[in-house]
Amino acid sequence: MEKVDYIICGDYVLTMNGKLDTLRKGAVAVQGARIIDVGAAEAILEKYTPVRLIAGEGRAVLPGFINTHTHAPMVFFRGLADDLPLKDWLEKHIWPAESSLLSPDFVCDATALACLEMAKAGVTTYNDMYFFGSSSALSAKAIGIRAFLGAGIVDFPTMSARNAGEYLKNAEVFINDWKGDDLITPCLAPHSAYACSPETLQKVTALAGRLDVLASIHLAETEWEVGESISRHGKRPLEHLEAIGFLNEKVLAAHCIWLEDSEIGVLAERGVGVSHCIESNLKLASGIAPVPHMLRAGVKVTFGTDGAASNNDLSILSDMSTAAKVHKAITKDPTALDSKTALLMATRWGAEVLGAGDSTGSIEKGKLADIITINLQKPHLAPMYDIYSHIVYAAGASDVDTVVVNGKLIIDGRRPVTCDEEGILLKASEWGKKIAAYNSSHPQ
Amino acid sequence: MEKVDYIICGDYVLTMNGKLDTLRKGAVAVQGARIIDVGAAEAILEKYTPVRLIAGEGRAVLPGFINTHTHAPMVFFRGLADDLPLKDWLEKHIWPAESSLLSPDFVCDATALACLEMAKAGVTTYNDMYFFGSSSALSAKAIGIRAFLGAGIVDFPTMSARNAGEYLKNAEVFINDWKGDDLITPCLAPHSAYACSPETLQKVTALAGRLDVLASIHLAETEWEVGESISRHGKRPLEHLEAIGFLNEKVLAAHCIWLEDSEIGVLAERGVGVSHCIESNLKLASGIAPVPHMLRAGVKVTFGTDGAASNNDLSILSDMSTAAKVHKAITKDPTALDSKTALLMATRWGAEVLGAGDSTGSIEKGKLADIITINLQKPHLAPMYDIYSHIVYAAGASDVDTVVVNGKLIIDGRRPVTCDEEGILLKASEWGKKIAAYNSSHPQ
Questions:
Q1: Coil, strand or helix at B248
Q2: Counting beta carbons within 10 angstroms of the beta carbon of residue A113, is it exposed (0 to 12), middle (13 to 18) or buried (19 or more)?
Q3: pLDDT tens column, B386-432
Q4: How far is CA A233 from CA A105, A227, A230, A237, A381, in A?
Q5: FRET pair for B21, CA 20 to 30 Å: which of A400, A414, B183, B431?
Q6: What is the CA radius of gyration of chain A?
Q7: Do A339 and B84 contact (CB within 8 A), yes or no?
Q8: Which CA distances in Å does B402 have to A172, B124, B339?
Q9: B122 with B318: CB under 8 angstroms?
Q10: Rounded distance between C-alpha atoms, residue B384 and residue B381, angstroms
């Protein structure tokens, strides 16, 4: 019998592979960072001896969730200022606090909290847009979560750089520093067409091409953005990005709410991935993206939580459930976004829009072992008719039991393995006090 | 020092009283079924000696959630048939299964599962519409949850009665059997204006008046219902109910989606309570109720989960969060439904529309002790700026730690005290097999 690091068993194994194979009483064998076999539990247990058997009674095994758009360090602003118009929220609370308190230490401690929350919610990969990426990288690596870290780029000064040229230069250094890491994929994150000039965006395109990295951008999030783009460029935001040659298959656009039919066609044609951030979009009253329409047009739509300040959590399970329900009501069609499609968006497609479709996002031989189990032995998950339905419509973050990323166990029966939860919460509480004090002292 | 059964402490006590008093480091003293004191923890602990101290470090204490509309036994159909048009869902799956398998035993076992799920989600009171109410009552009492049980009334035969006269007769017997019980409040539940003739509804009104009980009804849930009402009665559903004298302050109307402005005025004028079932309405693509508009008009809007077959859970926390977000996007106003209003709808107002505002729904001296604690020591609830925001936007059912109903501890640190969880899950699994077998054998 071959020795392996882990065998992970489950009453159900949802492979999320091309055929959406679902195994009853299945198992996954993990050796090093990779999945080396998937099959019937009985056969796998006969073939391999694991160092650790992760038993599967009452469990579903699935690929970890992919959070394709967030600002992880903003977790420290969760609940700081809710139920406010977007402009007040940003200009009177979030930006002042950020501009005064942001630092590598802030990003390091906040990212630890965000990664712990995400890991416990079954998120094994996330795509970030923020500043001080090396601090994020160190925290994400310490927890053991897979992170695509987009170096934020804007035209105005922040605590991290003074102008577009400096952001771009820093971004290149950051990318060269982290390229090739087993968990961290550095990339670019120009904020938006309203925060970056056409010249800046064209430099981003050139740099992304030269370094072969992903570029994430906010796109068509608010009606204000559309008006602003028309008045500045004479074009809607997406038309403007198309006109300056920004759109290609290595671009991931977050939000994509205010799109006309022809613009959806452009997204599909250019192969741009979309991160749908339904809970943030609802909470900030930004609008509701035309997801069923985008899916029909062949656009690859995935899920992002956005930052915890506007969600207010980092659980993809929750966004997936909300999205699958909301789009039914908006289209008046209960078949608009079914549970299998929703789960694909949350797993394999998420990996694909990050350019990591070959290595993660599904449970297949040879892929990296980014795997979670969900505990089904709960009153709110009984009885059982359809495992996809339960995961999309009934399961919550707290049902995630065990999490393996890159072949390493990071959550074991809900207990964090790689970090000190109490210490992270204590630091969060200390930062919270500083932020609250600043927020109440700042003239609003 | 006075002896009391419980002192429940918390870093925050959200009383949800008329002034929305929120105590830091507060405590509640419980003797028998009632709250006998509320105040600063230090003062309460000096004044009383508890048989059991429920410690409060990292906990919020609040009144239990009120689920104002559900069909608890339908929990056995959770996930049986999702992502289908309403007509197929009901006519090809739910109704055939109900008409073939429904029995007092089914209702007893299903209600046990539903009550356990609700208790663990912090729901201390629910309002049911179903059949075989005495079976529901016994299960709800065994778990120890407060239940308003509406005897279902329709014009067509089901397993529980043959015609309207028989439903009404059974309902009267049921109400007389259970009136005065400390946990069960029997009431009436005519299904809807399309399933009950005007004559049946007028008999319900007379009986409700004579026995002084609540009458719950589905109202304006779908566009189909509006068309049906106009073609049958020449009036929209609410106008029709108003014309036959059905509407008064002892009526609780579920859904209320398809309302015109004038109809919202009638609801307010008649003092009809509303149960808003956002997750069910989204999932069945029924539409989105004009909740901010109803609130502005002075209608008391509360939250219902509806049955688990269309939600797919029985957590008010989840519906509250979804509603607070969705209405912001629909009205394009991030202030549309703020966290304090949402929590009022989920607690005190819920009790008020059930006619139980004097006895439950808030933490006040003299009220029944229906109290929950929420564990705030979790990564997804850090840091802390605003306790209302965290409960509405970030907390989930699994954060509910301890639940007291009628002065009795029923969930203790997430462990059920009054029932055998494993036994309930086992029975659910057995019923699930029967239902699945029937569903796949039944011609669809």
A1: coil
A2: buried
A3: 999 999 999 999 999 999 999 999 999 999 999 999 999 999 999 99
A4: 38, 10, 5, 9, 51
A5: B183
A6: 21
A7: no
A8: 52, 11, 22
A9: no
A10: 7
**Burial class, A352, CB count within 10 angstroms (exposed 0-12 / middle 13-18 / buried 19+):** buried
Neighboring chain B residues of A115 at a CB cutoff of 8 Å: none
Residues counted in chain A: 444
A-B interface: how many C-beta pairs under 8 angstroms? Answer: 214
Tokens of A325: 């329900």
A397: nearest CB among B80, B324, B396: B396
- The secondary element (H helix, E strand) that includes residue A184 is strand A184-190
Exposed/middle/buried for residue B40 (C-beta within 10 Å: 0-12, 13-18, 19+): middle
Residues 6+ apart with CB under 8 A from B276: B255, B256, B289, B291, B301, B302, B303, B304, B319, B323, B345
d(CA A20, CA A11): 16
Residue A165 makes CB contacts below 8 A (sequence gap 6+) with: none
pLDDT at position A136 over 70: yes
pLDDT tier, A444 (very low <50, low <70, confident <90, very high otherwise): low
CATH 3.20.20.140 placement within chain B? 65-353
Q: How far is the C-alpha of A318 from the C-alpha of A301, rounded, in Å?
A: 16
Q: Which tens digit of pLDDT belongs to each residue from A38-55?
A: 999 999 999 999 999 999
> Residue A110: pLDDT above 60?
yes
Structure tokens at B108: 């007893």
Q: Determine the 3-state secondary structure of A227 from DSSP.
A: helix
Q: Residues 6 or more apart from A265 whose CB is under 8 A from it?
A: A297
When computed from its CA atoms, the radius of gyration of chain B, rounded to whole angstroms, is: 21
Amino acid identity, position B204: V
B381: number of Cβ within 10 Å: 26
CA atoms of A335 and A325, how far apart (whole Å):
10
Q: What is the DSSP letter of A258?
A: S
Query: If you search the block for the tokens 């230090």, which residue do you land on?
Result: B42
**Helix, strand, or coil here: A131?**
coil
Task: Tell me: pLDDT of B444 over 90.
Answer: no
CATH topology of domain B2-63+361-413: Urease, subunit C; domain 1 (2.30.40)
- CA A251 vs. chain centroid, Å, equals 15
Interface of A with B in 282-321 (CB under 8 A): 282-288, 308, 311-315, 318
All residues of chain B having their beta carbon less than 8 Å from the beta carbon of residue A284 are 328, 334
**CA B353 – CA A127 distance, rounded (Å):** 45
Q: What is the pLDDT of residue A91?
A: 86
Q: In chain B, which segments carry CATH 2.30.40.10?
A: 2-63+361-413
Look up the CATH superfamily of B65-353.
Metal-dependent hydrolases (3.20.20.140)
The beta-carbon neighbor of A79 closest among B377, B390, B432 is B390
Residue B73 has pLDDT above 70, yes or no: yes
pLDDT at A85: 78
ipTM associated with this complex: 0.97
Mean predicted confidence (pLDDT) in B202-211:
98
What count of other Cβ atoms lies within 10 Å of the Cβ of residue B315?
A: 27
Q: Give A89-94's long-range contacts (Cβ < 8 A, gap of 24+).
A: A89/A284, A89/A310, A89/B334, A92/A442, A92/A444, A93/A439, A93/A444, A94/A309
